[in-house]
Design goal:
137 residues; alpha+beta; Tetrahydropterin Synthase, Chain A; five-stranded mixed beta sheet; 4 helices
């Protein structure tokens, strides 16, 4: 049976502040610079989710794209869109909301609810120039 990769992209907006509770205020400022501003800042994120799996010989699909869209809505969009990631998502209460940590959070959230197929990759565009790829490793 052929193995196929299926991808869907969504956009969302969210605010955050790069700040680690494990560091002093001076260390946070030195590491994160203007992204450590006490009132935070925002991004228009783009996220691409890639699943892989055997091509179903009857449906011709790895996973119905409608199901992937709904999983992304539940695990990502409803949770993160127009939110302050640090304040509104418990996962970020004790860790910095870097793009890397956001991608890991998305992976953990999606992995719990995908009906079939294997989560292969999260590609998170924080900006046009800053991109994180996470494969669950």
């Amino acid at each position: 049976m052929p193995i196929v990769y299926l991808s869907r992209r969504e956009h969302f907006s969210a605010a955050h502040r790069l700040h680690s509770p494990k560091l002093s205020d001076a260390e946070n400022l030195a590491i994160y610079g203007k992204c450590n501003h006490k009132h935070g800042h925002g991004h228009n994120y783009k996220v691409e989710v890639v699943v892989k799996g055997e091509l179903d010989p009857t449906t011709g699909m790895v996973l119905n794209i409608t199901e992937l869209k709904e999983c992304m809505k539940v695990a990502i969009m409803d949770v993160m869109d127009h939110k302050n990631l640090d304040m509104d998502i418990e996962y970020f209460h004790d860790k910095p909301s870097t793009a890397e940590n956001i991608a890991v959070f998305m992976w953990m959230s999606l992995a719990k609810i995908l009906p079939k197929g294997e989560l292969h990759e999260i590609v998170l565009h924080e900006t046009d120039n800053n991109v994180v790829i996470y494969r669950g490793e």
